[in-house]
Amino acid sequence: xxxxxxxxxxxxxxxxxxxxxxxxxxxxxxxxxxxxxxxxxxxxxxxxxxxxxxxxxxxxxxxxxxxxxxxxxxxxxxxxxxxxxxxxxxxxxxxxxxxxxxxxxxxxxxxxxxxxxxxxxxxxxxxxxxxxxxxxxxxxxxxxxxxxxxxxxxxxxxxxxxxxxxxxxxxxxxxxxxxxxxxxxxxxxxxxxxxxxxxxxxxxxxxxxxxxxxxxxxxxxxxxxxxxxxxxxxxxxxxxxxxxxxxxxxxxxxxxxxxxxxxxxxxxxxxxxxxxxxxxxxxxxxxxxxxxxxxxxxxxxxxxxxxxxxxxxxxxxxxxxxxxxxxxxxxxxxxxxxxxxxxxxxxxxxxxxxxxxxxxxxxxx
Length: 365
Ligand code: NAD
Ligand code: DAU
Prior knowledge:
Blueprint (H helix, E strand, L loop, with lengths): L13 E6 L4 H10 L5 E7 L19 E5 L5 H11 L3 E4 L6 H6 L2 H23 L3 H6 L1 E7 L24 H20 L3 E6 L1 E3 L8 H10 L4 E4 L5 E6 H14 L5 E4 L4 E3 H15 L11 E4 L14 H7 L7 H14 L1 H7 L3 H10 L2
Helix pairs in contact: 1-8, 2-4, 4-6, 7-9, 7-11, 9-11
The structure holds nicotinamide-adenine-dinucleotide (NAD) and 2'deoxy-thymidine-5'-diphospho-alpha-D-glucose.
């Protein structure tokens, strides 16, 4: 009608089920993804020791966010969740993720990372196969994996690429490799539209302080020993967690199904360099000790089977999808140290109970 403009209602947000969204990377991903109005998120998480809903306090009442507590290996629960929420995609973070724990007790890793991923895939396949044609085509299952599936590099080896042969060395890496293969088979055999990302070591806010960087920041702040495994010369490629989350969003929206994408920071560092940097940053910002924090460094027994070097060739995602890390290690580590020093409540919360028990068992030998 002349003079009247049609008012269109905005399109329905695209619903994602994010598994493991209360963990370190999953919670960073949810916080970022909710900033985009075209997505809503259902977080399916079992809340193991590593899952912390405080990470998501700022969005707990958000109209486009819901939490479901549950195990990805519980097929009945996964089935109900899929039927109730009818997601357009699944972003699968849920896993047991700590290498040292996998050495002490591999069973949980096989249960969640292998059997859990299998259960999730089976229920996803059943749900997906009943979708209308257009929704079936648009559906995505994005599996979040690790560079550890490729094994260990020598000092002069080229970085891992998407075609590097799998050679996982720890029970954690083997369980992730198994899950990568099952995901691959579901795409190849059933045509499930999957995407797999393999990323290097992440650091940043909300990481549980059993991993190198948060453990060193907290111990340095508190004047406690800084346990460096072996000679401290093992090399990892470090990526700020928000860059990883951006990469996952890019792969989710533009990645080619059936493909795998390596994600990394082009940022190889020896562990001892990381620990020295943290000592200096904490010295600059926290209450002074009687001595420089570098004096807290204590070389301890090496991790059994410790991979010497990881490095990622991230050219494929850069060239094909236009992703690049925004943060340098220097800016990322400064932000991270500041975040831990400013979030006393979060630290108190995670450094009680189970965490203490783990530290006692692990570091008492
Ligand atoms: P995390 O240990 O911090 O979090 C794991 C989350 O999964 C927790 O919230 C936990 O409660 C949940 N979970 C565990 N078992 C579950 C189950 N059976 N059912 C439902 N939820 C369950 O892990 P993270 O560091 O955030 O890693 C997330 C994913 O990214 C993992 O798949 C990991 O292999 C992968 N990854 C991690 C890194 C890294 O540096 N942290 C690097 C590359 C890839
Ligand atoms: O490479 C990606 C992987 O990075 C992820 O798949 C894993 O989920 C994640 O935990 C991480 O594995 P790492 O074993 O590399 O991370 P972690 O922080 O446990 O150890 C980093 C390095 O620091 C490693 O060489 C072992 C060493 N280290 C670790 C701890 C906890 C120490 O020297 N002292 C420590 O106390």
